[in-house]
From TrEMBL:
Substrate binds at residues 77, 176. Binds 2 divalent metal cations per subunit. Has a high-affinity and a low affinity metal-binding site. The true nature of the physiological cofactor is under debate. The enzyme is active with cobalt, zinc, manganese or divalent iron ions. Most likely, methionine aminopeptidases function as mononuclear Fe(2+)-metalloproteases under physiological conditions, and the catalytically relevant metal-binding site has been assigned to the histidine-containing high-affinity site. It comes from Leptospira ognonensis. Belongs to the peptidase M24A family. Methionine aminopeptidase type 1 subfamily. This is Methionine aminopeptidase. CDD domains: MetAP1. GO terms for biological process: proteolysis. Residues 11-241 form the Peptidase M24 domain. The gene is map. It comes from the Bacteria.
């Protein structure tokens, strides 16, 4: 069942989204050579708590930390660790999902650490562009699979692999609810968008194959199958009468 949010719920999602954006912006200056992903996690957790909020990932289906931190060939759901220290040329996706008054804002960005390989920088730029191309499809009457079609039409001719095993998702009181949002061409007609739906658009884009592997030990870390690098961007989007509103931005 796809929840259609009412005015009160939409206002709460605006607040949650704004705080998620604020948190990600707050983290940005700490992303630099020598920082560990555990430090970034702790900075995020402290900032969230100080503002009276909680982190949705912490304890979610057993996830052990407050944010996801995914470096280079890690596609998503990387677990922050003391040993994972950023080096010149790395890329890192930080994915934050605070709970504000019961509602969750979900947003992520891939950061460049110092000077990166031009091909990698292009991957990151194209991934962000593809997210915006997907978001532009959001309006009542369009179907959610059209988001994936648009993203696919932009990325596939450039030779990238688009992750298929993980998708965007409805979000609200629940971290993950219907509908699923594909970032690739599914060749299937999925749900029609309606005003009041809230979901994420969060393409995961690889320099090589679209195929991924789930870590057997920690059960969370998702890596590219071929070890090539991967980027991701994510916003939480409200379907409005005319089109869309980005909820995960500061106001
Ligand atoms: N924030 C992720 C998403 O975009 C979900 C992370 S689940 C976690 O859907 F448990 F790993 F945090
Ligand atoms: Co998400
Ligand atoms: Co997320």
């Amino acid at each position: 069942m796809i929840y259609i949010k009412n005015k009160t719920e939409i206002d709460k999602m605006r607040k949650a989204g704004a705080f998620a954006a604020k948190l990600l912006n707050y983290l940005a200056p700490y992303v630099k050579v020598g920082a560990s992903t555990l430090e970034l996690n702790d900075i995020a957790e402290d900032f969230t708590k100080k503002n009276g909020h909680r982190s949705a990932p912490l304890g979610y289906k057993g996830f052990p930390k407050s944010i996801c931190s995914s470096i280079n060939q890690v596609v998503c759901h990387g677990i922050p660790k003391l040993e994972d220290v950023l080096k010149e040329g790395d890329i890192i996706n930080l994915d934050v999902s605070p709970i504000v008054d019961g509602y969750i804002g979900d947003t992520s960005r891939t950061f460049l650490v110092g000077e990166t390989d031009p091909l990698v920088k292009k991957l990151v730029d194209d991934t962000e562009k593809s997210m915006w191309i997907g978001i532009e499809q959001v309006k009542p009457g369009n179907r959610v699979d059209e988001i994936g079609n648009a993203i696919d039409d932009f990325l596939t001719p450039k030779g990238y692999g688009i992750v298929r095993d993980l998708m965007g998702h409805g979000v609200g009181r629940n971290f993950h609810e219907e509908p699923q949002i594909p970032h690739f061409r599914m060749n299937r007609k999925l749900a029609k968008m309606e005003a009041g739906m809230i979901f994420t658009v969060e393409p995961m884009v690889n320099l090589g194959t679209w195929e991924v592997l789930f870590d057997k030990q920690d059960k969370w870390t998702v890596r590219t199958k071929d070890g090539k690098w991967s980027a991701q961007f994510e916003h939480t989007i409200l379907v409005t009468d005319k089109g869309y509103e980005i909820l995960t931005q500061e106001n």
